[in-house]
Structures are given as structure tokens and as C-alpha cells.
Amino acid sequence: MAEAEAGAAGRARAAVARLSEAVGERRRRLGTAMGEARRQRRLLLLVVCVALLLDNMLYMVIVPIVPDYIAAMRGGGGAAGPAAPAGANESGGGGGNRSLLPARYPPATGGNEDVQIGVLFASKAMLQLLVNPLSGTLIDRVGYELPLLAGLAVMFLSTLTFAFAANYATLFAARSLQGLGSAFADTAGIALIADRYSEEPARSRALGTALACISFGSLAAPPFGGVLYQFAGKRVPFLVLAAVCLLDGLLLLAVEPPCGAGARANMPVGTPIHRLMVDPYIAVVAGALTTCNIPLAFLEPTIANWMKESMGASEWEVGLTWLPAFFPHVLGVYVTVRLAAAYPHLQWFYGALGMAIIGASSCLVPACRNFGQVIVPLCGICFGIALVDTALLPTLAFLVDVRHVSVYGSVYAIADISYSVAYALGPIVAGQIVHTMGFAQLNLGMGLANVLYAPVLLFLKNVCQMKPSHSERNILLEEGPKGLYDTIKMEERKGVGKSLRPVGETEENGTDSYHRDLAGVSEEDSSDYEYS
Predict the structure, then answer these.
(1) Exposure on the CB side of residue 406, measured as CA atoms within 13 A
(2) Phi-psi region at 385: left, alpha or beta (left = phi > 0; alpha = psi -120 to 50)
(3) pLDDT of residue 500
(4) Max Cα separation, the chain?
(5) Amino acid 502: pLDDT
(6) What pLDDT shows up at residue 495?
(7) What is the 3-state secondary structure (H, E, C) of 407-435?
(8) Which residues neighbour 198 within 8 Å (Cβ) at sequence distance 6 or greater?
(9) Can you name one GO molecular function term for this protein (predicted)?
(10) Among 181, 212, 259, which residue's Cα sits nearest to residue 50?
(11) What pLDDT was estimated at residue 70?
(12) Crossing angle for the helix pair 145-163 and 2-61, nearest 10 degrees?
């Protein structure tokens, strides 16, 4: 008997040891998986940031090259590269050396050329504007990685086309092709960040990092293109960007193969983009994004000529105009991320404050009389844009989380549409407004629009108090779980319900109370959710 008891005790101890070992192994695996997930999302953030950096560098790198193409169309032979006339932007004078920091939009010498340059710079945003509604819907259906990879592939082809372009028509085709790639890469990239960084303040930090890369790309491209164009030829800047784009695509394939495990097989289908567009909160955010970017989009093609006419600015001064603005933009991103972490309920206020700063700065631009003075309001505009973008882009993701389905392709397609509206109109409309009304009137109008729109963001004041819609829970109650995603969600709901039920409360009472809570849910909310 004693031997039997000792044997049973030994077996029990062995079972406990095996169980403890199994639990320890499971914990180690969970910790490893969580660590890998964190590393994976950091690498995905790097991929997205590089994609956004490349897109904005390609957007601006053609600035020092466009004048030579225009000269080539006039028969000046300027498209040959470094051997082209060094003073393609000759109105600044002195020495015939090309400015390595050229104007954002090169001034043209003739009306027809002015139209051609304006259409060339606007063609990317125009195509992006047309494609975004389709790209957002596609991203919601197939996931984020595959559209991001497709966008990078199109941008790679666009960059190579730029490198070997020999005339205006090829440049226009390459520019339009870039807009197609951007509609997929930019939207999918931002949506991927919002999806992988679902908690605050990590989401705001990640989106702020992406915005800083966008700003740096726009700033670094003109000197990058100018230096390489002058010393290595016109193809070299584009070939370098194409190589980086190819490496970024390969990194994405290594980190998260888009056609790997079918991760979205049981994920919810996103709310259609047309329904998101009529959501009043999303509409307010989209309007703010368009309004705050109009001063930058309209000043880029007009400020160079105004500075030369009003203050006799040289090419070097015109090229340096936007350089200092990068630093307040990054500062604005940093400040907003820190404030959002400490006071997340004031996101609307940060956006409204940014619009007020943009409005005041826009109105100050025409009053400047020298190069040093004009830098101050331009820095104010970029600081304000950083406040608005960094505060409102995470707000879009939060609105989708609490009012729709947590799938972000369509909502960030709406954000991209908002930006594209400003940058499609700027190169074409701004010059005409300056010609008919004057530079001062243009800036006063843009400033007034931002100041008047700032109070509209009060509409977002109570957004942070919203709770997630019950529609997802209703569907899971009414239908049995159809896949892993639904099963996990059902188990989570059950666990929460059990943990919150008071001691002694019967299952029947809990069910009755639960259904009473759901009684106020609207039919429209329920119809917003579809599960495959």
C-alpha cells in the first residue's frame, strides 16, 4: 500500500513538472511571438516610411531638370544633362551656375510653357485623385501588403521612365504613372501603420514618423536632384531612387509576403468609401486636411516669382526658401505626439490651433520685404500643417474604429484625396489667381479660409468619448462563429461578460440586461458590418 501511494505521488509530481514545463514553454513561445510581432511591425513601419520618402523625393526631384526639358523643346538641347546650359534658371543672374537648391517650381518664360509645367506638376495629384476611391476599396478587400507592393512596383517603373525620358510626353507619362503608384503605396502604407499600431500613443508616434519622412523627402529632393544632376547627369538621381525603391519592395517581401498565409480570410469587410465620405466627422477631418494644405500647395508655384519681383531675390535665396521650414515641421510633429500622449482628448484643439497658425502665417507672407522675413511665416505654415496632420490622421483611424469597421484603406484613401485636391489645383489655379487678383489677395484668402475653418473642428470635441459600435457584437451573437477571427471575438465577449457579471446574478438576468443594452443600437449601425 505504501509503495502504491509513493508511486502515485511520484506520478503526480512528474505530471505537475511536465505541466509546469509545458506552461513555461508556452510562455516562452508567446514572448518570442510577441517580440517577433513588435520587430515585424517596426520593419513594416520602416518599409512604409521609405516608400513615403521615395514618393515625395520623386515628386520634387524633377524640379532642377524641368527647365532643361523646356529648353530642349525650344531646340536648345538642354535635355542632355550636365552639358546643358548651366543657367537654365537664368533670371537670378550671376556666374551661370545652377542653383543646387532650386526653386520648388521653376519659373517659365512663356505662357504655353507655364501651362505645360503646371499640368506636369499637377498630373500626379490629378491621377491620384481619380484612382484613390478605387484603391481604397481594393485595399479594404485584399489587405494592405499587396497594394503596397504593387504601388512600389509602379513607382519603380515610373522612376525608370523618368530616368530615360527624352521629351515632355514621356515626362508627363512618368509623372502620371507615379500618381497611380502613390494612390496604392501611400494609402496602403498609412493604413498599414494604423492597423499594426492600433493603440495610442504608439499609433500617433508611428504616423508622426511617417509624416516626418514625407517632409524630409520634399525638402531633400531638390538639392539631391540638383547635385547629382550637375555632377553625374540627369539619369543618376532617378536610378538611385529606383534602386532604393527596389530594395524597399524586397524588404517588404521578406518581412510580410503579401500572398503568404491569407491573413484576411476571416477579417471583416470594410465600410464602403461612399458611406465613409458622408460620415460628418470624417468629412470635417477631410475638409481640414484640404484647407490646411492649400497654402503650401498654392505658394509653391507662385512664391519664387513673387520673391524675385518684390524683393529682388536671387536663385540661391529662392532655393533656400523652404529649407528652414523642415525643422518646424518636425518640431510640430514631435510636439503634437507628446501632447496627444498626455492629453488625447484635445486632438481637435491641436488641429484647430494648427489651422489658426497657418491662417495667420499666410496673411503675413505678402508683408515680408526680404529673404529673412519671408522664412518666418513659411516656417509657421509648415509648423501648423504638422499640428493638423499629426492630430487628425490618428483621429481618422479612431473614427473608423468606433463608428465603422476597423479596416483603414478607404478612410486613408479619403485623406489622400484631401491632399490631392490641394496639390492638383495648386500648380494650375494659383498662377491664374495671382495674375487676376494679386499675390497678396491669394494669401489673405487662404489665411482667412484656415482661420474660419478652425472653429469647425469643435465638432470633433466629443469624439474621444465615443464608444465602439455594438454592431460587431450583434452579428457575433446572432450568427455562429464562422472562422478563427469570429471565434476569438466571441470568446473575448464571453470572457468580458463573465468578468463583469456581479456575484449571484443569474445567466438569464445577465442575458436580459445585455439585450436591453443593445436595444438602442440603430439598424444602420448593424448594416455597416459584413464578415466574410
Answers:
(1) 16
(2) alpha
(3) 41
(4) 109
(5) 44
(6) 52
(7) CCHHHHHHHHHHHHHHHHHHHHHHHHHHH
(8) 401, 406
(9) acetylcholine:proton antiporter activity
(10) 212
(11) 60
(12) 30
CA distances to 42, 45, 194, 249, 494 from 255, rounded to whole Å, are 10, 11, 17, 10, 34
Q: What does the CA dihedral 489, 492, 496, 498 come to, rounded to 10 degrees?
A: 110
Q: Which three cell numbers stand for residue 406?
A: 476597423
**CA atoms 470, 472, 473, 477: torsion sign:** positive
Place of cell 476571416: 266
| Grid cell listed for 460 | 470633433
What tens digit of pLDDT does each residue of 458-517 get? 999 988 887 765 444 343 334 444 444 444 445 554 554 444 444 444 444 444 443 444
Distance CA 471, CA 531 (A): 11
For 230-244, what is the mean pLDDT?
A: 87
Distances (CA, A) of 479 to 162, 474, 487, 513: 53, 9, 11, 20
More confident call, 516 vs 433: 433
Q: Measure Cα distances from 517 to 36, 225, 340, 514 in Å.
A: 39, 61, 31, 5
HEC-encoded secondary structure of 202-241: HHHHHHHHHHHHHHHHHHHHHHHHHHHHHHHCCHHHHHHH
Flag whether the pTM goes above 0.85.
Answer: no
Neighbours of 359 (CB within 10 A): 26
- Over residues 288-311, the pLDDT tens digits come to 999 999 999 899 888 888 988 888
Q: Three cell numbers at 398?
A: 479612431
Q: In what helix (H) or strand (E) does residue 268 lie, and over which residues does it extend?
A: strand 268-269
Strands (E) in 40-122, as ranges, are none
Q: Which strand (E) or helix (H) includes residue 12?
A: helix 2-61
Read off the amino acid at residue 524. E
pLDDT-based confidence at residue 518 (cuts at 50, 70, 90): very low
DSSP 3-state assignment of 201?
A: coil
Helical pair 145-163 and 168-196, crossing angle rounded to 10 deg: 160
Q: State whether the Cα torsion 244-134-286-525 is positive or negative.
A: negative
pLDDT digits (tens, 9 = 90+) for 243-262: 999 999 999 999 887 765 44
> Do residues 52 and 30 lie in contact, with contact meaning Cβ atoms separated by under 8 Å?
no
